[in-house]
Amino acid sequence: MPVIAIVGSQWGDEGKGRVVDYLAATGGRNGGPADMVIRYQGGDNAGHTVVNALGEFRLHLVPSGIFTPRTRCLIGTGCVVNPETLIEEMDSLIAVGLSLDNLYISSRAHLTLPYHRQLDTLEERARGGKALGTTQRGIGPTYSDKAARWGLRVGELLRPDRLRDRLAVCLERKNPLIRSLGGEPVNLEAMMERCLAWRDRLAPYIVDTVPLTRAALETDQTILLEGQLGVMRDLDWGAYPYVTSSNPLASYGPVGAGLPARAIDRVIGVVKAYVTAVGAGPLPTELHGEVGETLRRIGNEYGATTGRPRRCGWLDAVALKYAHWLNGFTDLVITKLDVLDGFPEIKICVAYRLPSGEETDHMPDPSTLDEVEPIYETWPGWQCETGSVRSWEDLPLAARRYVQRVEELVGVPVRWISVGKEREAIIAVNPGL
Ligand code: GDP
Ligand code: IMO
Ligand code: MG
User: Fold this and answer.
1) Does residue 133 line the site of ligand 2, with CB under 6 A?
2) Tens of pLDDT along 336-371?
3) Which residues of 116-154 are buried (b: 16+ CB within 10 A; e: fewer)?
4) Which atom belonging to ligand 1 lies closest to the Cα atom of 58?
5) Which atom of ligand 1 is nearest to the CA of 339?
6) N or C of the chain: less Cβ packing under 10 Å?
7) Does any ligand 1 atom lie closer than 6 A to the CB of residue 298?
8) Residue 101 gets which letter from DSSP?
9) 421 C-alpha to center of ligand 1: Å?
10) pLDDT digits (tens, 9 = 90+) for 243-289
11) 61 touches ligand 2 (CB under 6 Å)
């Protein structure tokens, strides 16, 4: 059975969480549950909304397969874990009756500690008018520490003596920096006390992931790799510096999950039927007027983590083709098609005009996207309600044409369309997972 990566193909918030929830319940052998879901990068900057029979949830760290009890859910090595938010999230899930017996946390994942959050906020402040608009969840500072070898890992919570030694050295270095940026220095003993409390709570879930993923692969289980954010915010391939500090690309999946590179069988690109972004940085198709407002209002486009209004615009096929080149999509899911129901016409950006006047459908370095002008083609809207539609044939013709045009532009089959936030509002176009 396959290893399937589910990744964001735009600027994040495409609906990855709800797709993972759906496939965890139905994407395994004979339409049964998938065996495993692994979050492979990012931290609690993620806000993955899931709506199912248990209610509506905004998951930040716990993988979106958690609602399917037979699906083991692993917070993988490539993630950064804030124990405080994780415990809060676990409590909220236990409160609706989940056992969390199917939750695992990689001992090798890095810890996001309170000083990482503090530094994220202070660094954003220090950037002044050039702030990146991060989620201020400490993601950049945690991954910086990981790369610079100052990081502390989840497994170290289980070895308090070692943790104290390493934390003491880290704080000697961090505290002057925090002070220089105008923040409050961190007290070692107070920090250790919190670490011990986190250890008491999280210890049963912390694992060496290798035996787990190896056994899953060797026994032919279905493993879903849940990406965070989207390609346009990828550390290497996004609009640097307006990016996150990890790689949402599917090719990072095996690294962050602990699988061999050749393990991935399918890569599902999640495509919102238009685009949204939170935070600063170029967004070529952004709509500043009434149409953008309408998309935000109907799509309820407010950040699942920070509550910030999302910037909205028409679908950008140049960015989608770039996402396909980098990810190698085998399938697409189009989400939020219902949000376009009322528009008399719908645009798709098919090329950019460069400052030289030249037109191209090739993505330049995304950090130069503030210089391009989108070139659109216009499609007639369908102007009727699709939220209750449950089959491809029942979708209005103009909606099917829009979907087919996306398929044609990207060159990848659309397997599912989503017309509502609930689990059952997903239409299988080409069943066959
Ligand atoms: P993620 O970060 O990629 O998991 O996406 P988010 O959860 O941040 O944002 C997606 C938002 O759109 C959430 O509020 C979802 O409930 C909502 N959503 C997802 N799919 C659909 C859909 O097909 N129709 C509508 N109307 N809402 C959807
Ligand atoms: P999901 O997984 C949308 C954005 C921030 C900022 C940039 C860097 O729900 O799609 P960071 O806090 O990562 O250092 O911020 O990335 N960002 C997201 N935008 N969805 C997310 O996650 C995001 N995670 C980070 O707004 O522009
Ligand atoms: Mg989100």
Assistant:
1) yes
2) 999 999 999 999 999 999 999 999 999 999 999 999
3) bbbbbbbbbeeeeeeebbbbbbbbbbbbebbeeeebbbb
4) 7
5) 26
6) N
7) no
8) T
9) 6
10) 999 999 999 999 999 999 999 999 999 999 999 999 999 999 999 99
11) no
pTM equals 0.97
What are the tens digits of pLDDT across the range 186-244?
999 999 999 999 999 999 999 999 999 999 999 999 999 999 999 999 999 999 999 99
48 Cα to the center of ligand 1, angstroms: 8
Question: What ligand is nearest to the CA atom of residue 57?
Answer: 1
Rounded to whole angstroms, how far apart are CA atoms 24 and 122?
A: 39
CA 200 / ligand 3 centre spacing (Å): 30
CA-nearest residue, atom 27 of ligand 1: 421
Cα–Cα distance measured from residue 43 to residue 38, given in angstroms and rounded to the nearest whole number: 13
Domains of the chain: 3-107+208-269 (3.40.440.10), 110-203 (1.10.300.10), 272-326+337-388+397-411+423-428 (3.90.170.10)
pLDDT confidence of 304, banded at 50, 70, 90?
Answer: confident
Q: How many CA atoms lie within 13 A of 167 on its CB side?
A: 27
- Cα(39) to ligand 3 centroid in Å equals 14
- pLDDT at position 1, please? 55
Residue 325, amino acid: W
| DSSP of 354-366 | -TTS-EESS---G
Query: Residues with catalytic annotation?
Result: 13, 48
The tokens of 392 are what? Answer: 């491809």
Q: Among 9, 45, 271, 336, say which to mutate for ligand 1: greatest number of ligand atoms within 8 Å of CB.
A: 336
Is a pLDDT exceeding 80 seen at residue 408? yes
